[in-house]
Structure to design on (334 residues):
């Protein structure tokens, strides 16, 4: 205990006070009862530490028996959170560390920018949409062609039309910047960018349709397989909503309304033969540049590789109509 020293001398203190010391203008002391209580607290604290140690040891022994399940769970989570996993893999490759993949090719990224999450910021009085805009503005102001950019579901905090417009404009800016970007969205209208810009590609996660025997309806099964191209899945959100056990009548009404809106707003956009050819030329140029800079093949192997690139270019540059025409001509010749 501490008290003000502006008081009688130490000899005049009560006899119950022990270990009395005077420091400048204060006087420190304790009592026998306080010492006993302190010893009891120390003993209780040691008992808590001991019991906590026993509980943790028991918990670890139980976890070790199911450690394989935890590893499998971590793999599943990494597939669910593909963007963060990709960022981790890119960081590991920059340091020359092991990357958990059969094959991986990364360019050195000077900076990694992310726009992931859907939370407002009460401290700065920012809504979810305003926070998205601030983060995207920071990316645009600081990114360059050697940056890695990860953007997840931009434009969710506003109307669909405005969200599509913002996403489209941001994508075009990043394409012109030539920064390697992973842009995740549910706006299928953005898939049209691949028909305009050869350095843009579409990928989607495959799902399987499962027929319920007990109920006369289909459900979707997530495969977590990433495939190249544009998804053919329609009403994906409504099918995902069925997993939440929403009433069937509500889902039916939502499906009818969405179909009416889609008929009014959606226009089918297909690639022209010219855009297909431009995309194939761009992909061929990228492969040739990569081969000229990094190839260690001998003359014969390099010649074989170039012939393979030629076949790939011809396959990618031909539209379905031209391919069917050439196939028919080849059959006539044979």
């Amino acid at each position: 205990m501490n008290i003000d020293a502006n008081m009688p001398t130490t000899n005049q203190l009560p006899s119950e006070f022990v270990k009395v010391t005077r420091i400048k203008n204060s006087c420190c002391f304790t009592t026998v009862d306080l010492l006993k209580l302190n010893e009891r607290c120390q003993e209780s604290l040691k008992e808590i530490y001991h019991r906590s140690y026993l509980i943790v040891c028991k918990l670890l022994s139980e976890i070790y028996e199911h450690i394989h399940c935890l590893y499998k769970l971590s793999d599943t989570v990494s597939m669910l959170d593909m963007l963060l996993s990709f960022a981790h893999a890119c960081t590991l490759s920059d340091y020359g560390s092991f990357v958990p993949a059969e094959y991986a090719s990364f360019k050195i990224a000077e900076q990694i920018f992310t726009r992931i999450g859907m939370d407002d910021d009460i401290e700065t009085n920012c809504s979810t949409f305003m926070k998205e805009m601030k983060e995207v503005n920071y990316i645009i102001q600081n990114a360059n062609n050697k940056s890695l950019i990860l953007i997840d579901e931009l434009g969710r905090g506003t109307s669909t039309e405005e969200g599509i417009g913002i996403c489209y404009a941001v994508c075009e800016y990043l394409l012109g910047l030539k920064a390697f970007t992973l842009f995740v969205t549910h706006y299928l209208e953005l898939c049209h960018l691949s028909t305009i810009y050869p350095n843009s590609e579409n990928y989607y996660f495959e799902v399987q349709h499962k027929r319920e025997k007990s109920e006369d309806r289909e459900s979707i099964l997530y495969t977590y397989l990433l495939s190249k191209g544009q998804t053919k899945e329609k009403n994906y959100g409504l099918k995902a909503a069925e997993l939440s056990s929403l009433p069937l009548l509500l889902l039916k009404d939502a499906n009818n309304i969405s179909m009416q809106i889609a008929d009014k707003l959606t226009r089918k956009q297909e690639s022209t033969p010219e855009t297909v050819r431009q995309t194939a030329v761009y992909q061929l140029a990228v492969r040739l540049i990569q081969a000229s800079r990094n190839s260690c093949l001998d003359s014969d192997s390099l010649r074989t590789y170039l012939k393979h690139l030629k076949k790939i270019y011809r396959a990618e540059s031909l539209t379905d109509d031209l391919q069917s025409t050439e196939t028919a001509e080849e059959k006539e010749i044979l």
Summary: The longest strand covers residues 218-228. Residues 276-333 form one domain. The chain has a mean pLDDT of 77. Strands lie at 2-4, 18-23, 26-30, 111-115, 147-152, 180-184, 203-211, 218-228.
